[in-house]
Amino acid sequence: MNLKIPVAPANASNKTCTYESANEAIATVDANGLVTAIAEGETTVTVKSTDGSNKQAILQIKVPTLATSIEITSETGEFWVYESRELQLYAKVLPANASQKVKWSCKYSDQEIAESNGNYAMEENGLLHAYTDSSEIEVTATATDGSGVSKTVKIEVFGLK
pTM, whole model, 2 decimals? Predict the structure, then answer.
């Protein structure tokens, strides 16, 4: 995150500021106001004017817990479904105090499937619709916290006899 602190008045001759983190074990800040998260927690960043006015601002910075892994389960405990049926999938983001929000996606024959391609559809809540049979699809849950963590499982789709 890059801090953009407005300096007033707009025609001030010296608009430079200094930045200081109260706890660099949580977040650091460089001379340009770029904050880098180091670990979960809270700290403050103090921004001070350098024009001799002694003006300053103190900003609260909260670094959330990021996902380290994701577990995927299904309502049936299995990773298969019959054609023309649905399979509810669930994602558990770890650690438990990380955001539990994930983005679901699925792939069939190495092609990403948008909302629905006529063969499969994946809903935001993890509900997979299988409209065709005899195939394997990959379903991925990706954490939305910026960690880049994801988990993929393969789902077999069987035809009805």
Answer: 0.69
Tokens of 153: 């499982």
Give me the half-sphere count of Cα atoms (radius 13 Å) on the Cβ side of residue 49: 14
Of 1, 40, 3, 5, the C-alpha closest to 23 is 40
Cβ atoms < 10 Å from Cβ of 70: 21
Q: List the Cα angle 134/139/141 in 5-degree steps.
A: 170
Buried b (16+ CB within 10 A) or exposed e, 100-130: eebebbbbbeeeebeeeeebbbbeeebebbb
The DSSP secondary-structure symbol of 67 reads: P
What does the block give as tokens for 135?
């195939």
Question: 84 and 76 in contact (C-beta within 8 Å)?
Answer: no
pLDDT in tens, the chain (161 residues): 778 777 778 888 888 899 999 999 999 999 999 998 888 899 999 999 998 888 899 999 998 898 999 999 999 999 999 988 999 999 999 999 999 999 999 887 666 665 555 567 889 999 998 877 667 889 999 999 888 899 999 999 998 76
Q: What whole-number distance in Å separates Cα of residue 125 and Cα of residue 107?
A: 17
